[in-house]
Amino acid sequence: MPGHQIDEAVIAVVGASGALGSRIARKLAEQGAKVIAVGRDRDKLEAAQIPGAVLVEGDLSDATLGDRVVEAAAELGALDGVINAAGVVAFGPLADTDDAVVEDLFMTNVIGPLWLTRRVTPMLSEANGFLVNISAVVAEKPLPGMVAYAASKAALTAADQALVRELRRAKITVIDVRPLHTETGLATRPLAGEAPKLPEGLEPEVVVDAVLAAISSGQNEVEASSFA
Questions:
Q1: Cα–Cα nearest to 157, from 179, 183, 129, 127
Q2: What is the full per-residue pLDDT of the chain (228 aa) written as tens digits?
Q3: 222: which strand partners?
Q4: Got the DSSP string for the chain?
C-alpha cells in the first residue's frame, strides 16, 4: 500500500505515557500530526508533554477503550492512524508463572489490541488509514524464561499478518514492528520474575524512527533483523 502523510493527520497513540509511546507521540506532534494520547494515568499523560494532544484515559483491558478513541477522533474530524505502543512483560519458567500473570500478558498484549482494532477499523477505513502494533523480537525468536510473553507477542504478530490481508479492501495499512530489546525500562517492571542479563538494548529513538518510516512508506512489517 502507499505510504501515509503525518502532517495534519489525526493519530491515536496507545501507551502514550510510556517511554516509547511518549516519544512516538511527541515526534508525531513535531511533524504536524494531531495526536490523541491514550494511557491509563491522566497525570502521566499530562507529564509526557505532548504538544496539543487530546488526552484519553483508559486501559486496553477495557473493551470500550476503542469507543472512546473513536469519540475523540470524531471531535477532530477523522482518524488517520492508530499506533499501539502499550505492552507488558514477565519472566521466569512457565511452571512458576501464575495463571493471573499469563492472563494479564495476553489481555494487554493481544486481547486488548484486538478489541481496539475492532472498534477503530470503520473510522480508519474512511480515511484509508493505518494501524501499527509494536510487537517484539521474541515473536520471531521465542526464548526460554519468556514463554508466555513470547507467545503473546507471537499472537499479536500473527493477528497483524492476517489483518494485512483482511483489511486490504478497507484500504487500511497494517504494520507489525518487531524491535530488538529496547532501553525503555520495561524489563525492570515485569509483571513477574526477574529479567535475565540482557545485552545493551536499542535506544528508543531508533524504534521511533523505524515506526515513522514504516508509516511514511506503507510497509507492512519491520522485522527484528532490520534493527540489527
A1: 179
A2: 689 999 999 999 999 999 999 999 999 999 999 999 999 999 999 999 999 999 999 999 999 999 999 999 999 999 999 999 999 999 999 999 999 999 999 999 999 999 999 999 999 999 999 999 999 999 999 999 999 999 999 999 999 999 999 999 999 999 999 999 999 999 999 999 999 998 899 999 999 999 999 999 999 999 999 998
A3: 177
A4: ------TT-EEEEETTTSHHHHHHHHHHHHTT-EEEEEES-HHHHHHT--TTPEEEE--TTSTTHHHHHHHHHHHHT---EEEE-------S-GGGS-HHHHHHHHIIIIIHHHHHHHHHHHHHHHTT-EEEEE--GGGTS--TT-HHHHHHHHHHHHHHHHHHHHTTTTT-EEEEE----BSSSGGGS-SSS-PPP----B-HHHHHHHHHHHHHHT-SEE-GGGG-
Residue 81 contacts by C-beta under 8 Å, 6 or more apart in sequence?
A: 4, 9, 10, 11, 12, 124, 129, 130, 131, 132, 215
Domain ranges of the chain: 10-227
Cα dihedral sign, 93-95-99-102? positive
Is domain 10-227 given the CATH code 3.40.50.720 in the classification?
yes
Q: Record the pTM.
A: 0.97
